[in-house]
Amino acid sequence: VVAHTLFSHLEDPRVVLSEVVRVLAPGGKVAIFDGDFASMTFTGDDPAAARAADDAIIEAVVTHPRVMRVLPQLLREVGLSLEHTFG
User: Fold this and answer.
1) What is the pTM of this model?
2) What is the DSSP letter of 2?
3) Contact 3, 24 (CB under 8 A)
4) Range 49-80 burial, b when 16+ CB lie within 10 A, else e
5) What is the pLDDT, as a whole number, of residue 28?
6) How far is CA 57 from the centre of its chain?
7) Do 74 and 13 touch, CB atoms closer than 8 A?
8) Are 63 and 9 in contact (CB under 8 A)?
């Protein structure tokens, strides 16, 4: 199963992970590619305004900007294990 830039757009990624487990062939692999959108930052002369812009852009782009930070725990909760990460 390949999930490319999917999980950051989900309200409840656990639901989709449960479906992945359901359809995954025995011995199959899951590849998830997504971003840590909460780490997006922009700069400006006014730090408060820059932070507000960061928050507005992140909110407009994704539903779950920190999903990659919680994904290892979600994988364990649905019975999957994390084998490899890169960033």
Assistant:
1) 0.79
2) E
3) no
4) eeeeebeeebeeebebbebbeebeebbeebeb
5) 95
6) 16
7) yes
8) yes
